[in-house]
Design brief:
Elements (H helix, E strand, L loop, with lengths): L4 H14 L10 H9 L3 E7 L12 E10 L2 E9 L8 H15 L4 E7 L5 H6 L3 E11 L5 E10 L3
Length: 157
């Protein structure tokens, strides 16, 4: 899904606010742009009011980016800016993402996150469960290593 430059600006704005720099999880603009050129990648935005379609002047509260292959989709990035957390926007955005994945014929969704990621409760609330661990996958800016937790959500017919 080719994104207009202002949507990439919106994604980058949330990315800069939402991802703590010490974990090195944030993507740069080039990585986001390149991923969205690939036909199997897509994204969604959410405004502070929960809107999916944002006006020009509206602040972007969050976004997701994903990649679909055959009947599986991987949630590559998911973020809500800190000032908009604890308002239910993460639940709204994740619900939209899951619903659209189902609507696109996906049978399961994968994601990977660092151990201790505060979003773990959100994913669990939507039915994701752990399927594997990559020991010491992430490296912090201080040199510490953190496991990556692989999770999936499967859809029942």
């Amino acid at each position: 899904m080719l994104a207009p430059p202002d949507d990439i600006d919106r994604i980058m704005s949330v990315m800069e606010r939402a991802f703590p720099p010490e974990y090195g999880e944030a993507w740069n603009r080039r990585q986001v742009s390149d991923a969205l050129v690939v036909g199997s990648c897509r994204y969604g935005l959410i405004g502070a009011d929960g809107a999916e379609q944002l006006s020009v002047e509206a602040d972007t509260a969050g976004f997701f980016m994903s990649r679909g292959i055959l009947d599986e989709e991987e949630l590559l990035l998911f973020a809500i800016a800190p000032q908009y957390r604890r308002r239910g926007l993460g639940h709204i955005l994740l619900t939209r993402f899951i619903s659209s994945a189902k609507g696109n014929g996906m049978s399961r969704i994968f994601l990977e996150m660092r151990r201790g990621n505060p979003a773990a409760f959100l994913y669990a609330a939507h039915g994701f469960h752990e399927i594997g661990v990559r020991p010491s996958y992430y490296r912090t800016s201080g040199g510490n290593r953190i496991d990556a937790i692989s999770q999936e959500l499967t859809f029942q017919d």
